[in-house]
Amino acid sequence: MFHAMSPSEPAAPPIPIDDGEPRDRPIAMWRGWCGRCPRCGEPTLFRAYLKMASTCVSCGEDLEPFRADDAPAYFTIFLIGHIVVPLVLMIERSWAPSLWVHALLWIPASVALSLVLLPRIKGATIGLLWALRFKPR
């Protein structure tokens, strides 16, 4: 159903006009990788392990529109698969250990890599979204 806006309801906020500020993608992604604000470089991108800050307390940049959603998880899985699978195949070809040895090696390795890479990949993704000015409408 169509809903007409009454005069008492606030209007939707306008989409910000492009500020013309140059945004270097590699620098923004590197800052995000390091957990820093893509604009000013201060370590304020995350307020917890994977919780993104809504605004940078240093420069005031609104980071809320640059949500990475599920992309970092997919990129992390992709990267870990490309690291672990060749190693599994090399170990299997060289020494042919039992399956329990593979489990003892690769499950903790995969979990550790996931825990290390996920916040970094999320930060780099947020940095890229910021550099591209990618905001949902």
Care to describe what's here?
The chain is an all-alpha fold and 137 residues long. The protein has one domain. The protein has helices at 25-33, 71-95, 99-131. Helix 1 crosses helix 3 (99-131) and helix 2 (71-95) packs antiparallel against helix 3. The radius of gyration is 21 Å and the shape is elongated. 19% of the residues are buried. The mean pLDDT is 89.
What's this, in brief?
The protein is an all-alpha fold and 137 residues long. The chain has helices at residues 25-33, 71-95, 99-131.
Based on the model shown, name its key terms.
137 residues; mainly alpha
**How many helices does DSSP assign?**
3
Percent strand equals under 5%
Number of domains: 1
Q: Which geometry do the CA atoms define? A: elongated
